[in-house]
Design brief:
heterodimer, A: 216 residues, alpha+beta, four-stranded mixed beta sheet, 7 helices, B: three-stranded antiparallel beta sheet, 4 helices, disordered N terminus
Chain lengths: 216, 173
């Protein structure tokens, strides 16, 4: 069990905060040793696969937290039936593949944390971050992850640090900013929207951090 | 014509930008109200989705607005209207389907009561809006003899075909 996790609230830019007063970004720094998942994590994934049934996947959109993210998707111009919310994406993949496939300790930790709490959790390489992460709209002419990245349309909601955008919200992470095999420390990020209680967001980050401590 | 993305969050709001003397428009309040309406419609659509499952023939997609970004007032209104239209349409489709399913249920009862009046008729789970391969089939008792004697019965088949087909023959020893 992890003993201590320093949860921090990231910044939310003015226009976003005015539009969505309950939008939050909560983050925590965690040491990491990327690699294969230990047996205990693989067993947990197997257990979760067995527990996750089709009826649960269908009824998911009526549960408060998945529904809160569906509503937020609508509010920011995404169709959750075209671009799935993270928890629904996981559910759909489980139905398609028949089980949750173990990839590596970081991806497995994020998947389990999202699955247990319905709160999406992302991870960035702490060494590549400059300052605190937050949420803002993309600037005119901005590119994802720096000047050499994919151009972003003006006004996209992005997760960013103080110098560049790191990821499009609920979509692509900028190349090279995710956790790499050489990463030693990572920043876990959870996005909280209206209708999602604080305790669920904290639990999601604790859950991910706890699993990452199990790395061999 | 300006691209939608070039508009600011409230850039396409012609009706609300017209200054009316003596009237101040609280745009934030309008946007908040629209977001609440969208949330309510989304909740009702989710309930309808769960009620409609596993029936097919519904269209749940409303279309993406190239997000994630702040939508203008006009876009929020359009989204609200599209969600309302989609909800209304899907409710009507579900109503029609449940009516048809009720007809099929009534037919099953008639088939069981008077099978000779419903020769060879078949009702499947899909007709009732349910999953599985169960079906009610009016067939003659004892094959040809039943046909000649007008002995009919409802045969209920509940088994789905095996996913892998029939068992393969044993290898020759």
């Amino acid at each position: 069990m992890i003993d201590e996790l320093d949860l921090q609230h990231g910044w939310v830019a003015g226009e976003l905060a005015a539009e969505f007063p309950q939008l939050r970004l909560v983050h925590a720094r965690v040491e990491v040793q990327p690699g294969k998942s230990p047996r205990s994590v693989k067993e947990r994934l197997r257990f979760l696969s067995d527990r996750f049934t089709g009826s649960k996947a269908v009824a998911m959109r009526q549960q408060p937290i998945p529904q809160a993210y569906r509503v937020f998707f609508r509010h920011v111009g995404l169709d959750p039936d075209l671009q799935r919310t993270p928890i629904e994406g996981i559910a759909l993949e489980r139905m398609r593949a028949g089980h949750f496939k173990s990839r590596n300790i970081v991806d497995d930790a994020l998947l389990i944390a999202t699955l247990e709490t319905s709160v999406p959790v992302y991870a960035f390489d702490a060494a590549r971050l400059e300052g605190e992460p937050g949420l803002r709209l993309s600037h005119p002419g901005e590119s994802l992850g720096g000047p050499h990245g994919r151009p972003l349309p003006r006004g996209q909601v992005v997760i960013a640090d103080e110098s560049r955008s790191l990821a499009i919200l609920f979509a692509d992470v900028a190349e090279g900013h995710g956790v790499l095999p050489s990463s030693e420390e990572m920043v876990l990020v959870a996005v909280q929207v209206k209708g999602v209680p604080d305790v669920s967001v904290e639990e999601a980050l604790w859950c991910a951090a706890d699993i990452l401590q199990e790395a061999p | 014509m300006r691209d939608v993305l070039e508009l600011g969050p409230v850039g396409a709001v012609a009706p609300f930008q017209l200054p009316v003397p003596g009237i101040e428009v609280d745009e934030l309040a309008i946007r908040r109200s629209l977001r609440e309406q969208i949330a309510k419609l989304e909740s009702e659509l989710a309930s309808l989705f769960c009620s409609a499952y596993p029936r097919k023939g519904f269209d749940w997609e409303v279309g993406s607005r190239r997000g994630p970004r702040l939508l203008s007032l006009v876009e929020l209104e359009e989204l609200r209207d599209e969600l309302a239209a989609k909800l209304q349409h899907n409710r009507r489709v579900l109503g029609d389907k449940t009516y048809t399913e009720e007809m099929y249920r009534a037919r099953i009862e008639e088939m069981i009561l008077e099978p000779e009046k419903h020769k060879w008729e078949r009702v499947t789970n899909a007709d009732l809006g349910e999953t599985g391969c169960k079906n009610w089939h009016v067939r003659p008792r004892f094959g040809v003899i039943g046909m000649l004697m007008n002995w009919w019965r409802v045969k209920i088949s509940s088994g789905c075909p095996l996913a892998k087909g029939p068992r393969p023959p044993l290898p020759e020893q």
